[in-house]
Design a protein that fits this description.
Elements: H1 5-14, E1 18-19, E2 21-26, E3 32-37, E4 41-44, E5 49-55, H2 61-66, E6 69-74, H3 80-85, E7 99-102, E8 105-108, E9 113-125, E10 128-140, E11 145-149, E12 152-156
Antiparallel strand pairs: 1-11, 2-3, 2-6, 4-5, 5-10, 6-9, 7-8, 9-10, 11-12
Bound molecules: flavin mononucleotide.
């Protein structure tokens, strides 16, 4: 039987364990929402740049593609329900009590790290938009991380936890 190359690629990348983040951005009316994202990568230290990739078919494409500033919250081991919630368009609205402000940007309370970013560049690549952000400010906390591996959530403790 012939192996579907797209399926094989999905399986290969599913073997690459990642952390889990929620990217937060406001629409043109100022309403904030969040999207579960595991494509986050660090790009540069000087200046501090990171990237994530936004799927072109997302129902929330416009606000995330067009945002000048946006937040990233790296989820801790207790963040699975949060990750599941922000992966669904119907439940992606950000409630004010679950958000806090960092450099004028809304991020989720809690989490292992919060980063406020300003869009530095965008590049269309296949069916995703690569969004590169300049890091404006960060907050970091100790704790175990939420992980994503082969379509499943897990957790990992750091050496100091
Ligand atoms: C663990 C995990 C990681 C994800 N990473 C990304 C990502 O990097 N980029 C992206 O566009 N969508 C990612 N998604 C999907 C989005 O969270 C969301 O489900 C998708 O944009 C569909 O949203 P929509 O209902 O607004 O169309 C991820 C989902 C999960 C569960």
């Amino acid at each position: 039987m012939e192996i579907d190359p797209e399926q094989q690629y999905r399986r290969a990348m599913g073997a690459f364990t990642t952390g889990v983040t929620v990217v937060t951005a406001a629409d043109a009316k100022g309403a904030w929402s969040g999207m579960t994202v595991n494509s986050l990568a660090s790009v540069s230290l000087a200046p501090r740049l990171l990237l994530w990739c936004l799927g072109s078919r997302s129902a929330r494409y416009a606000p995330f593609a067009e945002a000048d500033v946006w937040g990233v919250t790296v989820l801790g081991a207790d963040g699975e329900a949060t990750a599941r919630r922000f992966a669904r368009a119907a439940t992606q609205d950000l409630r004010s009590e679950e958000a806090e402000t960092l450099a004028g940007v809304k991020v989720l309370r809690g989490g292992l790290a919060q980063l406020a970013c300003r869009t530095h560049d965008r590049k269309q690549a296949g069916d995703h938009l690569i969004i590169i952000g300049e890091v404006l400010d960060v907050r970091v906390r100790d704790g175990a991380a939420l992980t994503f591996f082969r379509s499943g959530y897990g957790e990992i403790a750091g050496p100091a936890d």
